[in-house]
Amino acid sequence: MPSFEFVVTLWSIRPFSALLVLGVGLLYLRGWWRLPLQNRRIAAARLICFGLGWLLLVVALFSPLFALAGELLLARTIQQILLGLLAAPLIWQGAPAQTIRWGLPVRLRRWTTGVLRREGALGQGVRGATQPAAIWLVTFGSFLIWADPAFVQWSIGSDFVYSVSLWLFFFVYLFFWMHVVKSGPRLHKALHPGMGFFYVLIGGEVPNMATGVILAFRETLAYPVYAGGSTIVNLTPLMDQALSGCTIWVLGSVIYFSICLGILGRVFRNEDAPAPLPLSWDATERTIAPGLEHRISARKPRKA
Fold it and tell me: Among 165, 190, 216, 301, which is disulfide-ready with 245 (CB 3.0 to 4.6 Å)?
């Protein structure tokens, strides 16, 4: 097991990544603080969700997991879960686009709003590139590339390349969950819950489960770069691979199925149910049998 000194001291702070993460966090806090007091109280839950997602992003990018990813497939797998399945949807739960917009300087806020207008060239380009079908294909392809042995061998060889690959992986899944959580900028028509179910199931859970099962039961090494094992964690390469597969399979599937069940709840929710009666109505009026309403009206005192 890693020593306490290793866990505490081996945090890799890369300037560009640190400035980006810190800047986004400060802009969100500034925007949240500038909300009206009553809105700020309502947005407290969103602040908590964003804070949790932000902390998971920090752990994935700067903790000893980054250093261990060159020796352990399990460390790389945990980063994958933190970035794609936990941090990204949690950050969207915090409504970051709207809140960060209030944290920007007034001129920059107006410029951003103007540039992303529907009739503008850049706005049309952003809307076209972030269509659900396009994002689904990009996410599916990115997962296959992320799991490709040649890509793993190439990216692990350089800290800079690996850091960039983590950011790209995170941004791809950030756009993927944007169409599911529905708290991002209103660039597209809301995805129907039925379509959202298959969007998550086929685009997320199917490749996730297939990769996890293959790694968990494979008897030969899928990634030669991890053949040397780790000098810090006492795990054989095959055990490391099996644990990685189980983590992707079990933990990833739990997250995906939980979100799919939440989407199914939207599908079967009875939105046409009659609205509840006003609370100002008298209790007897709400419980009287049909056809006997005249008895209630007869008991009421007449107005002068």
Answer: 216
